[in-house]
């Protein structure tokens, strides 16, 4: 584990620690089931135990940390049930977003979406997993914002951390990268044509493939 405190003079230390640990969990640097020992983390980050303890409580509220009796805090496991729960909701939101974007997206946003597809493809060529994940988030955010539906965007944001975790697990498999590029192109072209049925189906396939790939990885991890 190579944790580095991402210091920010404008944030309370508790929030800085929280963001550092959250990023480590989302990117898999802190692995599912790994214990979060306050003393060890405090020494590693060069802080007292108090902001560590507060950050762990915040991570528990986000579902990224689980408190185990007589063991303490550990990184929450990625289970088949939690994956299905998140993906069922996200699939519906993505399909609806694609349909609404076909109706409401502006010409300016369409240009941004095309550029986002190209930026994602470039990140794939660079093979930087963190950059790929960030470009993927940015691409989908354009579609969500194009809906103009604040409630929908709020629901997407509430799922964001869990979704990022599964997204990063998927992206770590480089065999999926070309498929992701092609899926993004299909989504973009469907929205460009204002084809609601095709856009919704492309969004569904995109989430279905991600769920299948992450499910395989979860089962492999469980079998070890």
Describe, in plain words, how this protein is organized in 3D.
The protein is mostly helical and 224 residues long. Helices cover 73% and strands 4% of the residues. The protein is built from 9 helices and 2 strands; from the N terminus they run αααββαααααα. It has helices at 13-26, 38-45, 49-61, 80-104, 107-126, 129-146, 150-171, 177-192, 196-223, and strands at residues 65-68, 72-75. Strands 1-2 form a two-stranded antiparallel ribbon. A hairpin with a 3-residue loop joins strand 1 and strand 2. Helix 2 packs across helix 3, helix 6 runs antiparallel to helix 7 (150-171) and helix 7 crosses helix 9. The two termini are 21 Å apart.
Task: Label this structure with key terms.
mainly alpha, 224 residues, 2 strands, 4% strand
Report the principal-axis shape.
globular
Main pleated-sheet profile: 2 strands, antiparallel
In spatial order, strands of the major sheet run 1-2
Q: What's the pLDDT, averaged over the residues?
A: 92
Q: Compute the gyration radius: what is it?
A: 19 Å
**Ends distance:** 21 Å
Order of helices and strands: HHHEEHHHHHH
Spans where pLDDT lies below 50 across 5 or more residues? none
β content, as a range?
Answer: under 5%
Count of distinct strands: 2
Question: Which structural class should the secondary elements be placed in?
Answer: mainly alpha
Helix content: over 70%
Number of helices: 9
What does this entry show, briefly?
The protein is 73% helix and 4% strand. By secondary structure, the chain is mainly α.
């Amino acid at each position: 584990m190579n944790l580095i405190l991402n210091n920010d003079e404008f944030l309370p230390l508790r929030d800085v620690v929280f963001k550092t640990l959250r990023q480590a969990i989302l990117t898999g640097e802190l692995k599912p089931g790994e214990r979060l020992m306050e003393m060890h983390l405090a020494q590693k980050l060069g802080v007292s135990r108090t902001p560590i303890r507060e950050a762990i409580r915040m991570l528990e509220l986000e579902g990224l940390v689980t408190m185990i009796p007589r063991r303490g805090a550990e990184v929450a496991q990625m289970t088949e049930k939690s994956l299905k729960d998140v993906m069922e909701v996200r699939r519906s939101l993505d399909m609806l977003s694609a349909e609404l974007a076909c109706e409401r997206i502006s010409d300016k946003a369409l240009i941004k979406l095309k550029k986002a597809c190209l930026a994602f493809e470039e990140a794939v060529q660079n093979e930087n997993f963190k950059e790929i994940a960030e470009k993927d988030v940015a691409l989908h955010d354009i579609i969500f914002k194009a809906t103009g539906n604040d409630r929908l965007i709020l629901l997407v944001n509430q799922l964001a951390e869990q979704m990022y975790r599964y997204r990063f697990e998927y992206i770590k498999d480089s065999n999926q990268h070309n498929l992701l590029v092609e899926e993004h192109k299909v989504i973009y072209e469907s929205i460009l044509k204002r084809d609601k049925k095709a856009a919704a189906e492309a969004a569904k396939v995109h989430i279905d493939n991600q769920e299948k790939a992450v499910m395989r990885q979860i089962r492999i991890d469980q079998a070890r």
